[in-house]
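Subject: for your reference before the review

Hello V.,

The reviewers asked for a structural picture of the protein, and I figured it would be easier to keep everything in one thread rather than splitting it across files. Below is the amino acid sequence we used in the manuscript, unchanged from the supplementary table.
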Amino acid sequence: MDYAFPFERYDIWKLSVDMSLKIYELSATFPAEEKYGLVGQIRRASNSVGANIAEGVSRFSEKEKARFLEIAYGSLMEVAHFAILARNLNFLSLKQYDELKIMIQEISNKVNALHKKMTNR
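And here is what came back from the structure prediction:
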């Protein structure tokens, strides 16, 4: 497969894009009054995960790569927080929340593993 950019080779980047697409799909059903509240926040946080992974793996130093992965992880935890909040507000069904939580956990595990690999070199 031809890649246009180096970050496209990383599964965690692909998973983060899938998560963002899922967030957009799910948040489209949130109440209209949340458009500039919870919808905007969860979408920005989910987009930040992939953007920071892309920027991080494209850096030259391992220290810089690791730092951007830390930022991506923080954004991922924001997504987790907003997902819990959306579930508690009944904007997400239990099934939708569980599916999203699985995505978040998988990305979290992969970000942590890559971060560990970069900081142990």
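For the response letter, the relevant points are probably these. The helical segments are 11-27, 38-57, 62-88, 94-119. DSSP finds four helices and no strands in the chain.

Happy to draft the paragraph if you're swamped.

O.
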